[in-house]
Amino acid sequence: MSSHQREARATNRIAVAFGVTAAAAVGLAITYGLGGQSQVEGALLAIALGGLGYGFVEVAKHLLPQGPYVEEREQLVATPEDVASFEQALERGQPWLSRRGFLVKMLGLAAGALGIAALFPLRSLGPNPGRTLFHTRWRKGTFVVDEQGERVRVDTLDVGGAITVFPQGSVGVENSQTMLIRLTDRDFVTRDGRETWGPEGYVAFSKVCTHAGCPVGLYQQQFKKLLCPCHQSTFDVPDAASVSFGPATRPLPQLPLMIDDDGFLRSQSDYEEPIGPGFWNRGR
After folding, report:
1. Does 151 share its domain with 51?
2. Which of 9, 24, 182, 265 has its CA 20 to 30 Å from the CA of residue 47?
3. What is the pLDDT of residues 131-181, one digit of tens each?
4. Rounded to the nearest 5°, which phi and psi values hold at 180?
């Protein structure tokens, strides 16, 4: 078999390999778009990358110059033999030059299909949160309700009691879940500037931990501390839920409360700072 025939066959094998890569990548994208199936996705990805790798090996093995080559620098004048050798080398390279454009196009097709398939898993990251952690469902005058949707009154909790509450109409909304605690039966101030936030001893803090976003659901009545069960961040409730232990980097945001003329708890406004992990506050 002549060298030209070997190169032609190698070119065909490479084109098929790149074509297989492109087809497998398209199949991968379709499979993922239809809901995904991990075994099928893994097999298609293996085929796509395998075809790409096989094509590169075939190019290196059969179409690129094999060498080694040594240039003799002592003789600078070309002899008739050198000219003939150069012409022969040029002729050997012509088939590769003519096939290179075709193979580059096939490689572009394979790489493009893989690139498109790689975009689909971005959907697994979930929806773009946008500014959802900068604003919750709490608004001025919103009724405070428990997990059953019942409005919370001033006499709902005894001193030392704690429950999870939500804004009325938004029970179960994660970014609005709030821990309501009654520290005393008198107005309570956790920090300067929050003189009206704790009527009748009620204080409310976001349940979304400022470390990793886990729900802060454990209240230690004896020590007046909130505990996150995920990484043991602990927050001192009377001190505006400041961090007393653990990896959290900032206090839990406090919800301003008020009591209306009928004795129902309401919010004065939304949280005045973003809820959730500390880094979120930097994008404000």
Report:
1. no
2. 9
3. 666 789 999 999 999 999 999 999 999 999 999 999 999 999 998 999 999
4. -105, 125
